[in-house]
């Protein structure tokens, strides 16, 4: 393939993951959330635990589609690398700005350094540079080294429980009170988007890069085989190294990445080949902007004390009919609906906000 091709299926899949992020991040009440819409407490997984891995997987797919033709045509590597680094830095800075806004308006005790966008930026930089400077064979070897090396680090690092695992210990040293959780009396910290567990997240994005190369070459059978193989291997490996989203274990990488590859293959067949509507595409072409805008919306509503009155006034009448859980879900769906309208308007006007 000599030119870059945009796949509506990739935009749709990316958009659906963003919509799912907004859904699970914005319930009407955190006290009443259906179990599938919550993260697993520690080991194991729920449908919610698939959302962020799917997004990072699609980051890798998108890099393969964006740079594949340019790399094959011999485009200057230095220029492409600068593009990757600049965009990664913008994503990371945006994540820090959003955390600063939350710290200021919501009067949080400390400013949190790690975060979702920060992890996305690191993965984008890593996989972007890997796609530019390493051949596919070396990329596969790097993926294997990351998976095995990180698994050894977690296993040899001691406990895999929340308190005492090597990722939390190191993140506690690196970030201290500027992480997601910090107990000053014991010096114990933990962050689900910490730096150490990002080693697993890098593997997810790298697996997406390799899947994206198969998609570019229209090797859909191989893509499906990759998905099935990874998912099965992940479940087998989980007997020794548990599936864990917060640690982003190597078994979790393979399980979620395998499901991501299967979802990509299915979306490609249905949308690109069979002509099904690309549901979610509006979110997909403005993914980071939608995530950041929704974050700011939530922070402003919470920071100015408007969230609870809005929820009670606009959705209180639902509780007698659907119960508190249904009422909370209705708010989350309405929140996603508002942002679906916003990104749809942006798409119709040809506006794509790139970070």
UniProtKB/TrEMBL annotation:
<dbReference type="Pfam" id="PF07786">
    <property type="entry name" value="HGSNAT_cat"/>
</dbReference>
<keyword id="KW-0472">Membrane</keyword>
<keyword id="KW-0812">Transmembrane</keyword>
<feature type="transmembrane region" description="Helical">
    <location>
        <begin position="88"/>
        <end position="105"/>
    </location>
</feature>
<feature type="transmembrane region" description="Helical">
    <location>
        <begin position="141"/>
        <end position="160"/>
    </location>
</feature>
<feature type="transmembrane region" description="Helical">
    <location>
        <begin position="283"/>
        <end position="305"/>
    </location>
</feature>
<dbReference type="InterPro" id="IPR012429">
    <property type="entry name" value="HGSNAT_cat"/>
</dbReference>
<feature type="transmembrane region" description="Helical">
    <location>
        <begin position="325"/>
        <end position="346"/>
    </location>
</feature>
<feature type="transmembrane region" description="Helical">
    <location>
        <begin position="50"/>
        <end position="67"/>
    </location>
</feature>
<feature type="domain" description="Heparan-alpha-glucosaminide N-acetyltransferase catalytic">
    <location>
        <begin position="6"/>
        <end position="150"/>
    </location>
</feature>
<feature type="transmembrane region" description="Helical">
    <location>
        <begin position="220"/>
        <end position="240"/>
    </location>
</feature>
<feature type="transmembrane region" description="Helical">
    <location>
        <begin position="12"/>
        <end position="30"/>
    </location>
</feature>
<keyword id="KW-1133">Transmembrane helix</keyword>
<feature type="transmembrane region" description="Helical">
    <location>
        <begin position="195"/>
        <end position="215"/>
    </location>
</feature>
<protein>
    <submittedName>
        <fullName>Heparan-alpha-glucosaminide N-acetyltransferase domain-containing protein</fullName>
    </submittedName>
</protein>
<feature type="transmembrane region" description="Helical">
    <location>
        <begin position="252"/>
        <end position="271"/>
    </location>
</feature>
<feature type="transmembrane region" description="Helical">
    <location>
        <begin position="117"/>
        <end position="134"/>
    </location>
</feature>
């Amino acid at each position: 393939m000599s030119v870059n091709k945009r796949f509506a299926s990739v935009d749709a899949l990316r958009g659906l993951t963003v919509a799912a992020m907004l859904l699970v991040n914005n319930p009407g009440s955190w006290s009443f959330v259906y179990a599938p819409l919550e993260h697993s407490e520690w080991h194991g997984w729920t449908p919610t635990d698939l959302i962020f891995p799917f997004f990072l997987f699609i980051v890798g797919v998108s890099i393969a589609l964006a740079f594949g033709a340019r790399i094959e045509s011999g485009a200057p590597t230095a220029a492409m690398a600068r593009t990757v680094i600049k965009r990664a830095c913008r994503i990371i800075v945006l994540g820090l700005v959003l955390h600063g806004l939350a710290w200021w308006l919501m009067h949080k005790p400390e400013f949190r350094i790690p975060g979702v966008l920060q992890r996305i930026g690191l993965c984008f930089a890593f996989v972007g540079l890997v796609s530019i400077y390493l051949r596919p064979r070396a990329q596969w070897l790097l993926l294997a080294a990351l998976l095995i090396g990180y698994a050894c680090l977690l296993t040899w690092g001691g406990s895999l429980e929340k308190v005492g695992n090597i990722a939390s210990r190191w993140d506690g040293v690196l970030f201290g009170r500027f992480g997601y959780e910090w107990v000053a009396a014991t010096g114990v910290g933990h962050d689900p988007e910490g730096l150490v567990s990002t080693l697993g997240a890098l593997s997810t994005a790298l697996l997406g890069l390799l899947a994206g190369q198969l998609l570019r070459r229209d090797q859909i059978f191989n893509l499906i085989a990759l998905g099935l193989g990874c998912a099965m291997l992940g479940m087998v490996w989980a007997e020794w190294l548990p599936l864990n989203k917060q640690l982003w274990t190597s078994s979790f990488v393979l399980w979620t990445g395998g499901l991501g590859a299967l979802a990509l293959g299915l979306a490609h067949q249905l949308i690109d080949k069979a002509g099904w509507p690309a549901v979610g595409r509006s979110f997909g072409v403005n993914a980071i902007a939608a995530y950041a805008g929704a974050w700011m919306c939530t922070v402003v509503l919470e920071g100015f004390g408007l969230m609870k009155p809005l929820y009670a006034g606009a959705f209180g009448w639902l509780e007698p009919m659907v119960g508190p859980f249904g009422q909370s879900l209705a708010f989350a769906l309405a929140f996603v609906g508002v942002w679906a309208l916003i990104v749809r308007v942006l798409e119709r006007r040809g506006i794509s906000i790139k970070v």
